[in-house]
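Need a sequence for this fold. Nothing fancy.
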């Protein structure tokens, strides 16, 4: 989006806000659940600038402003509140909202957690357990690293095709490469990444990636201070894209690993990628049979309470990006993300 387009949209969103439209929406339809989805909260600096920028959800300053807005205009609930209500217990408050994070990046602890704790706000973090247990690198971060580190401006990768870029164009190329990788089989992805680094002449510094993930000690601290921990599978495959037997392992072993560390039940899972087609009825059955009480997609919300009660294994969330200005954030959390 150009700077001019951004300015026009921000102006429109601000005008709608000043007219009181969002307040009116909340009064007219207060039984709406708004679930925010973050990935990373971090400054865009030397610690993250070689990784996949679309997963940067907000700077710490923007996240702080967003949490202040949510605290003022919504009733922030916990995952336990949601599960209790779905099981026939206490009603949800009107204009309920839930804050979630995917993957398990270390900056969730470093930057987001203190902001949440200061405001006494809970959240749920969905962990990809291999990210914490092994020298596991997400394919999107490794692809971004290779493009940013190389001196080349063109590459051809079998199974993916040819890509070329100049200064400033690498971000769109990285996005396209990641989009093509994500639906490959888990067996193919390491081969493609190895070919990418080889053809670009990039030697991967694995120490760079070791600082990206949460530690289990950090997870334990957060879990003991108002942060719920859910599963995001073992290794983040698209569950509809792998054999059922492998999907079962991804779903159940991630739950077992987190419960082993936390000594408490894991209630929820967030489907990797989470779009229509990324989880099937069979996947939902595996999730239910593995003992999860709820599951989340990344199909855009918010969602009516009635819809949530009928789709507890496919609850919508609102994907947030560092491109979301405050006016755009406000519009998204009040429904623009779903309906426009």
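Here you go.
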């Amino acid at each position: 989006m150009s700077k001019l387009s951004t300015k026009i949209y921000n102006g429109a969103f601000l005008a709608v806000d000043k007219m009181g439209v969002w307040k009116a929406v909340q009064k007219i339809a207060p039984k709406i659940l708004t679930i925010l989805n973050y990935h990373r909260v971090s400054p865009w600096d030397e610690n993250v600038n070689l990784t996949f920028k679309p997963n940067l959800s907000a700077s710490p300053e923007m996240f702080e402003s967003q949490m202040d807005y949510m605290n003022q205009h919504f009733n922030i609930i916990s995952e336990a509140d949601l599960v209790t209500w779905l099981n026939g217990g206490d009603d949800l408050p009107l204009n309920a909202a839930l804050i979630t994070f995917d993957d398990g990046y270390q900056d969730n602890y470093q930057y987001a957690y203190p902001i949440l704790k200061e405001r006494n706000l809970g959240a749920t973090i969905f962990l990809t357990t291999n990210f914490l247990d092994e020298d596991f690198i997400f394919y999107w971060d490794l692809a971004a690293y290779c493009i940013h580190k190389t001196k080349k401006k063109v590459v051809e990768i079998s199974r993916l095709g040819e890509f070329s870029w100049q200064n400033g164009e690498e971000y769109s190329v990285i996005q396209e490469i990641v989009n093509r990788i994500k639906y490959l089989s888990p067996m193919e992805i390491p081969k493609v990444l190895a070919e990418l680094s080889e053809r670009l002449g990039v030697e991967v510094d694995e120490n760079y990636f070791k600082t990206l993930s949460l530690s289990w000690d950090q997870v334990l601290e957060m879990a003991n201070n108002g942060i719920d921990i859910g599963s995001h599978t073992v290794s983040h495959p698209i569950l509809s894209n792998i054999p059922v037997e492998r999907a079962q392992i991804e779903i159940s072993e991630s739950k077992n690993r987190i419960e082993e560390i936390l000594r408490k039940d894991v209630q929820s899972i967030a489907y990797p990628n989470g779009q229509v087609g990324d989880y099937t009825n069979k996947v939902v059955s595996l999730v239910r049979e593995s003992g999860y009480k709820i599951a989340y997609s990344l199909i855009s919300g918010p969602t009516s309470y009635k819809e949530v009660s009928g789709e507890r294994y496919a609850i919508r969330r609102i994907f947030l990006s560092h491109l979301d200005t405050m006016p755009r954030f406000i519009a998204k959390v009040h429904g623009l993300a779903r309906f426009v």
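For context: Residues 244-262 form the longest helix (19 residues).
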